[in-house]
């Protein structure tokens, strides 16, 4: 009588998802042709532990909590799983490889599912014929390794279109219906999708979305200790490495569609927050330029403005007014550097024009409450009463702020009055 196999197999792939108890069933693992095991669990495995003898093992020590960084492990786990699917040289009657990969955590619900989803999304974006990944330096504990060769067909089933988080999750649930990654892992999977599933660790860590997210995590870690963040962890949006405005727009479009709302509806989640509201119309909107009311120096453009909303429980009819918010909230910008370098948790924001220096707003790393009742963390608020808003349908060419404003804004000048050149004053 044939031994039973692992029950939860991803359709189209020899990938199995299960809990820790699967390691205690050696006959079931052998019947399922398991040659590679991914353990996504904070557990100390003893060297030479019997259930792992004769298989390749990748250990990812991770807790199943919202803020665990599982995203950083995707390139390594993808390469390991892909190697496992193409490792076993014994052929079946169909001529396919018969290697199998077990991905497990404690219960086979959240962490293990997230790792498999990342692989499904990544492999669905690869060319139809891809090279075998480089073998790792550890020797494979099987004499059959010598018989393997690169001409062996790969055990992959590429879908006609790249998988999204939702379509990959639907596919995995066909084999294991109760998988349910926690909300933090789903968020990271959507980030991975927005980055087009980088293959290598270098590609992941150099991507703008990942850098913004890591910096945001470091900022929030500092705030949890009641201290200002280190300057190295502050992302000045106007100093990011942008090749052109179109590149910046594409990144913002990707990030605004992630649906990464904060758990607290009153708080603007700083994680990869964008300058565009997900509900914005698709047609180009006029760009807003904020200028110091005293000296007309450019303070910020609309792509550096953080949208915010009043809390759900606040009834707009209570005040009986439709006045705009008293503050405009911004991402950190390079002209704030000297102020933030002082290491204070809060303080004033002054006009970047040294000859002006007018008080135009305030900042608080732990958050500011707007006049509408909305709370933005961290808060960099510019008082509307201290700035003028100029609208333009064409984006300026410069990316850094604090210098001359871009030409072509929509402010109408009186007859006979000419715009001066140089420092942007009218």
From TrEMBL:
Superkingdom: Eukaryota
SMART domains, A to Z: DSPc
Biased composition (Low complexity): 273-286
Positions with biased composition (Acidic residues): 238-247
Region of interest: Disordered: 130-160, 237-286, 394-426
EC number(s) recorded for this UniProt protein: 3.1.3.48
Record's GO cellular component terms: nucleus
Domain Tyrosine-protein phosphatase: 6-198
GO molecular function terms noted in the UniProt entry: protein tyrosine phosphatase activity; protein tyrosine/serine/threonine phosphatase activity
Domain Tyrosine specific protein phosphatases: 78-179
SUPFAM superfamilies hit by this protein: (Phosphotyrosine protein) phosphatases II (SSF52799)
Active site: 105 (phosphocysteine intermediate)
Keywords tagged on the record: Hydrolase, Protein phosphatase
EC category name: hydrolase
Compositional bias per record (Polar residues), positions renumbered to this chain: 136-154
InterPro entries (UniProt xref): Dual-sp_phosphatase_cat-dom, DUSP12, Prot-tyrosine_phosphatase-like, Tyr_Pase_AS, Tyr_Pase_dom, TYR_PHOSPHATASE_DUAL_dom
Family label: Belongs to the protein-tyrosine phosphatase family. Non-receptor class dual specificity subfamily.
Protein's UniProt name: protein-tyrosine-phosphatase
Organism: Knufia peltigerae
Gene behind this protein: YVH1
């Amino acid at each position: 009588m044939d031994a039973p196999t692992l029950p939860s197999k991803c359709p189209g792939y020899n990938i199995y998802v299960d809990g820790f108890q699967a390691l205690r069933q050696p006959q079931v693992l052998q019947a399922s042709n398991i040659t590679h095991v991914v353990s996504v669990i904070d557990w100390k495995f003893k060297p030479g532990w019997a259930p792992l003898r004769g298989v390749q093992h990748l250990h990812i020590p991770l807790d199943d909590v919202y803020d665990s960084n599982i995203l950083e492990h995707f390139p390594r786990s993808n390469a390991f799983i892909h190697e496992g699917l193409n490792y076993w040289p014994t052929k079946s009657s169909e001529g396919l490889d018969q290697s199998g990969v077990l991905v497990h955590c404690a219960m086979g619900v959240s962490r293990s599912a997230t790792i498999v989803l990342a692989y499904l999304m990544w492999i669905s974006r690869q060319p139809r014929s891809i090279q075998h990944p480089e073998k790792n330096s550890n020797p494979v504990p099987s004499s059959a390794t010598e018989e393997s060769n690169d001409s062996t067909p790969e055990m992959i089933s590429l879908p006609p279109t790249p998988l999204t988080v939702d379509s990959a999750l639907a596919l995995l649930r066909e084999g294991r219906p109760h998988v349910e990654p926690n909300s933090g892992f789903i968020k990271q999977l959507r980030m991975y999708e927005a980055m087009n599933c980088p293959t290598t660790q270098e590609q992941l860590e150099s991507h703008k979305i990942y850098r913004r997210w890591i910096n945001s995590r470091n900022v929030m870690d500092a705030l949890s200790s009641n201290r200002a963040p280190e300057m190295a962890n502050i992302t000045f949006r106007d100093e990011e490495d942008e090749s052109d405005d179109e590149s910046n727009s594409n990144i913002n479009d990707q990030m605004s569609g992630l649906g990464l709302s904060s758990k607290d509806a009153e708080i603007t989640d700083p994680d990869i927050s964008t300058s565009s509201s997900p509900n914005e119309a698709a047609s180009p909107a006029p760009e807003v330029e904020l200028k110091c009311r005293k000296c007309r120096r450019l303070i910020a453009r609309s792509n550096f403005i953080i949208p915010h909303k009043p809390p759900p429980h606040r009834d707009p009819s209570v005040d009986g007014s439709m006045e705009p918010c008293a503050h405009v909230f911004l991402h950190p910008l390079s002209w704030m550097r000297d102020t933030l370098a002082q290491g204070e948790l809060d303080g004033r924001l002054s006009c970047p024009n040294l000859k002006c220096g007018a008080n135009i707003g305030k900042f608080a790393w732990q958050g500011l409450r707007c006049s509408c009742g909305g709370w933005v963390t961290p808060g960099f608020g510019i008082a509307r009463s201290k700035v003028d808003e100029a609208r333009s349908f064409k984006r300026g060419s410069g990316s850094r702020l604090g210098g001359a404003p871009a030409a072509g804004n929509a402010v109408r000048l009186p007859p006979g009055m000419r715009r001066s050149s140089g420092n942007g004053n009218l």
